[in-house]
What we know:
A: elongated, B: 5 strands, elongated
Amino acid sequence: MRTIIFxxxxxxxxxxxxKFIGKAIFGIPIIQMxxxxxxxxxxxxxxxxxxxxxxLTSESRGLTSKLDGSPFFTIVxxxxxxxxxxxxxxxxxxxxxLRIPAGFGRDLGLGRPAKVMVSxxxxxxxxxQLSWAYxxxxxxxxxxxxxxxxxPEAATxxxxxxxxxxxxYNEMLNYKYYMLPGILGILVTxxxxxxxGLNMVKEKEIGTIEQINVTPVKxxxxxxxKMIPFLLIGLIDLAIGLGVGKLLFHIPFxxxxxxxxxxxxxxxxxxLGLALFVSTMxxxxxxxMFVAFFFMIIFILMSGIFTPLESMPVWAQNIDLLNPVxxxxxxxxxxxxxxxxxxxxxxxxFALTAIAVVFTALAIxxxxxxx
Amino acid sequence: xKRFLGFVRKEFIHIFRDTRTLVILFGLPVVMIILxxxxxxxxxxxxxxxxxxxxxxxxxxxLTDRICSSGFFRKTADLSGHQDIDxxxxxxxxxxxxxxxxxxxxxxxxxxxxxxxxxxxxxxxNIATLVTNYATAIISGFTQQPTLTNQSSAPVIxxxxxxxxxPSLKSQFMFxxxxxxxxxxxxxxxxxxxxxTREKEFGTMEVLLVSPLKPVQIILGKVTPYFLLSFVNVVTxxxxxxxxxxxxxxxxxxxxxxxxxxYILLSLSIGILISAVAKTMQQAIxxxxxxxxxxTVLLSxxxxxxxxxxxxxxxxxxxxxxxxxxxxxxxIMIKGTGFAHVWKETLVLAFMTAAFIGLAVKKxxxxxx
Lengths: 371, 369
C-alpha cells in the first residue's frame, strides 16, 4: 500500500511540475464547456425565406404577412422571378423560396385548392426538413383560418384529434441541459485518456520505465499508480464542471450526486484501463496518440452524444455494448435530468464495471516488467 | 536542394517505419466515412414508444399499429395507468408515451375532438422534437384519410416542395465536407506538432540545427511528407464518397484540390505554431487534441449550423479555419460554384496561413538556450 502511495506522489509531482499541463488540466475543460455548451442546438433560429409573389392579391399578401409574423421566418428580399430567387439560394442569401403563382387569390376565392411552390436549400437535410415542417405548419394554420371563415368543405379536413404535447424532465427543451452532461463527459474522458496513456508511454520512450522495472514494485502497483492520479483529476474536473454548470447554466440536478460520481469513477477506470492497455502496446507517444485518437473518435461519435442511438443499425448497437462512452452519456443524462436511481441504470453500471475490470486486467497483464 | 531531399527521404522513412501509425492515418478517414454514412444518423428510426390506451377500441388499436409500422417507432410497452409514465420514461425504456383519451374511437366518429397526449422525454430535446413531430404527422394523416376525397373541392393551400442541391435529403452532403475538414486539421496539426516537439524533447533538434540545413529547410522537410500524405487522404475521401455514396464533385475538381492544398498548408502551419509554443510532446498533444478537437467539430458548422447559434458565436467561430473551408468545399462540391463564390473564404484561409507561419517563425528558436 505504501509503495502505491509513494508512486502516486511521484506521479502527481511529475504532472504538476509541468506548469502548462497543470493549468490546462483544469482550464481547458472549463473554458471549452463555457464556450461550447451554449452554442449547440438543433433548434432553428430563423429561416431566411424569399417570397415571389406573382399574384399580388389580398390573399397572397395575407399568407405573406402570416409568414412574416411567424418567429421562424425572416423574409428577405421580395423578388419577381424565379431566376433571381434561385440566385439568392445559390449565394446562401435565402434558405427557402416560396412562390405564389398568379391566380392564387382567384382560386381560393372560387373555392378551389390553390398551389404554392416551395424550394428549399437542402444541403443540410435536417434543417431543410425542419424549415419545411414549420412552413407547412403556418400553411395549415392559414387553411384552418379559411375553414373558420365559413368554408365547411375545408373544415372537414380539420377533424383531427386534439393532440397535446408535454416534455418531461426538460419542459422548455433547453439544449444546454442536454449538452452539458455530454460535453463534460467527453472532456473528462479526453483528459484522462490522453494524459494517462502518454504518461506511461513517455516512461518507455525515455527509458525511465526500466528503472521502475528493476525495483520490487509489482505490476498491479505500477498500473494502479498510473491510474489513480488521473482518476482523481477526472473527478475533480467533473466536480468543477458540474459546479460551473449549476451556477451559470442552472442545470437541474435531479438524481443522486453520489451515484453520478460513483458511475463516473467506474467509467474513468474503464477509460484509463483502456488507455494504459493501448500504451503498453505502443512504443512511442506518437503511436499511442494515433491509436487513442482513433478510439476516441469512434467512441464519441457512437456514444449518442449528438445523435439517437436507436437510429443506428443493430450491428452498431451491439458494438456499442463495449463502448464505455455510450454508457456514460446515458447514465449522466439519466441521473442529472431524470433523477434515475440505481434500479433504473443498474444494467448499465454492471456493464461499465465489467468493461472497467476487463480493460484494467488487460493493462496489468500486458505490462511486462521484463523488456 | 539535394540535402533537403535527403532530409525529406529520412522523414518518409521515419513515417513508413511505423506501420501502425500509417494504418491509422489512412484507416481513419475510411472508418469515419463508414461511421457517418451507415452508423450515425440524425434521422429518427425505431424510437421506442410506450402506449397508454384508455379506450382500447378498434380505432386506437389501428392507430397504434399505424404508428408502429411507420419504421420511425417501435412499441416497447403497454402501460396500465398514468402512474407508469414516470417509471418508463425514467428508466429510459421509452422515448415518449402516447396517451389515448377515453372513448377515443366513439368521439372521433361522432365528429368530436378526441384527446391524444404525447409525453416525451425532454432530456434529449432533438429526439423529443422529432418524436412529437413525426407522431403528430402520422396521427393527422390517419384521421384525415376518410376526407381525402373531398380535398379537391376545398379552398385550401396545397404546398409543393422541391429540395434544392440534395433532393433525396441525404445526410452525406453535410458530413463528407465535415470529415475532410476535421481529419485534415487534426491529423496535420497533431502530426507536425508531435514530430517537431519530439526532436526538441529528445535533443535531436540541436543535432539538426548544427547541421548544414537551414531552419526553414528543417521545418519544410518535416512537413512535406505530411503534406503529401494528407493530400492522399483528401483524394481517398473524395474517391470513397464517389464510389460509396455516389457523390461526385459538381464544380471544378482542380479548384477543389487546390483549395484542399491551401487548407492542408494552413493545418500544417498550425502544427508548426503549436510545436513552437509547446516544450514537450505531451503539451503539443494536449493542445492539438484536447484543445482543438471539440471546437473543430462543434463550432465549425459541420454538425450544428452556425446561424442557429447565439450571435456571439458568429464572431467566435470566425477565428476557426474549418468554418471557412467547410463553406468552400460545400460550395464547390455540392453547388458547383466557381472561384467567384469562394474567393473571400480562400483569402481568409491564405491570410491565416501566412499569419500562423509568421508567428511560428518568430517563436521558433534556432539558438540553444
